[in-house]
Structure formats: C-alpha cells, structure tokens
Amino acid sequence: FHAQCLQRQQSPRMDLCHVPATQEKGWYLALMAPNVKGPNYAWLDPSRLYCHPQGLQDCVADLLQPFQGDPIDMVAGIDAMGFILGAAAAAVLQKGFLAIRKAGHLCVQTLAQPYTDYSGREKVMEVRTDAISPGLRILLVDQWVETGGTMRAAIQLVERLGGAPPPRVPTGVAAICIEDSEGGRWIQERYKCAHCVPPRLQPRFNHHQ
C-alpha cells in the first residue's frame, strides 16, 4: 500500500483513468498521497481519491453500504473535507445536505459546540438551529476520525437539536477511516459506523504508516 502511494506521488500527473482489474474494498485508498511537508500536516492527502471518478464513486458506495435499508432523512458533513463525501453521499441517497461549520461562518442563528481536534487545538463548531427538527434521522460524514473529538462534537450538536430518538442518535457515522483510538472506539461502540479501510490495513492506518 505504501509503495503504491509513493509511486503515485512521484508521478508528474494524476492518473484519473486507471482502475485495477481486481477491485477489493478500499482499492482506492492507494490513490491517496503521503505527506511530504512535515508534521504540521495530515499524514495522508485524500484529494487524489476525490479526483478519480471511479475511486470516489466506489468510496461513497462503501460508506453507504452498511446503511442500506436504514431510514435516513438528511446527510450532515463536517467542515471542511467532510463536505465532499457528505455532499456526494447525499446526492446518491437523494437527500438534503447540512453543513456543520467551524464557528464564525454562519450569518443565521446557530448552536455552538466546543471541541478539541486531532492536533489538540481548541475549536468551536456550529450548526444552524432551523435545519434539524426533532426525530430527523441524520447520517454524519467526515473525511477521517482520528481522535474522535471533531465527530463527537458534531454528534452532540445533532443530539442537542433533537435528531432521531435515542438510543441511536444520529442514524450513523461514516468516514474514510475511523482509527482505533479512544475516541474512535467510543463512537463505534455507540453508533452504527462505516469506513473504507480493510481489516488487514487498519493497524497500519492506526499507526499512520
């Protein structure tokens, strides 16, 4: 997997046409580019995956597969990279999309939730108060769940606005990777989850290898 990432990173241009003959779940993960800029950046960049038409389509299909037959009223994506997968999932489901924003961007009445992100920085996220009515079934989508702080804050916002009855609020959580961290386990123990990393690769993703 790492060798494939490096090989694609060294290519002068992205190959947006190549699809492997054998497409096991997560084949598109090799499209992601490794970090070449140092510790202040995420260890992988999924942008290349999003640029690949078949890769993006298969990624979204894998994220939605566990929720087939589940009632979903709306998809919510987390600022900022969760907007890409969340909007794509909403389009496939033919449902509306709600943007959960970082504080300070919405000019309407909002509900705010403080949290600590994966880098340890204290932040605040907001959601407009008129988008989620009591009982609405929400699928929450983000690009990655590392420490779980960001996703947990989004869950708290949805719950505070009354989305879906307990004990399963929201309907589900989806991300390319949900790491086996304390926060990641907390989410997976309480909510129906979907991610794209095959079990054999999960330990390497947990250690950012």
Quick structural overview:
This protein is α/β, with parallel strands linked by helices and 209 residues long.
Draw up the topology in text.
Blueprint: H1 2-10, E1 33-34, E2 44-45, H2 47-51, H3 53-64, E3 74-78, H4 82-93, E4 96-102, E5 110-116, E6 122-128, E7 138-145, H5 149-160, E8 172-178, H6 182-190, E9 193-194, H7 202-206
Parallel strand pairs: 3-4, 3-7, 7-8, 8-9
Antiparallel strand pairs: 1-2, 4-6, 5-6
Helix pairs in contact: 3-4
Please report the distance between the alpha carbons of the first and last residues.
Answer: 9 Å
Strand content: 15-25%
Main sheet specs:
7 strands, mixed
Q: How does CATH name the architecture of the domain at 71-205?
A: 3-Layer(aba) Sandwich
Main location: cytoplasm
Family: Belongs to the purine/pyrimidine phosphoribosyltransferase family.
Pfam family, one: Pribosyltran
Keywords: Cytoplasm, Glycosyltransferase, Purine salvage, Transferase
Plain-language structure description:
By secondary structure, this protein is α/β, with parallel strands linked by helices. The chain has a domain of 135 residues: Rossmann fold, CATH 3.40.50.2020. It is built from seven helices and nine strands, in the order H-E-E-H-H-E-H-E-E-E-E-H-E-H-E-H. It has a seven-stranded mixed sheet, sandwiched between helices. Strands 1-2 form a two-stranded antiparallel ribbon. Helix 4 links the parallel strand 3 and strand 4. The longest helix is centred in the N-terminal third of the chain and has 12 residues. The chain is globular and about 45 Å long. The model has no long low-confidence stretch (mean pLDDT 90).
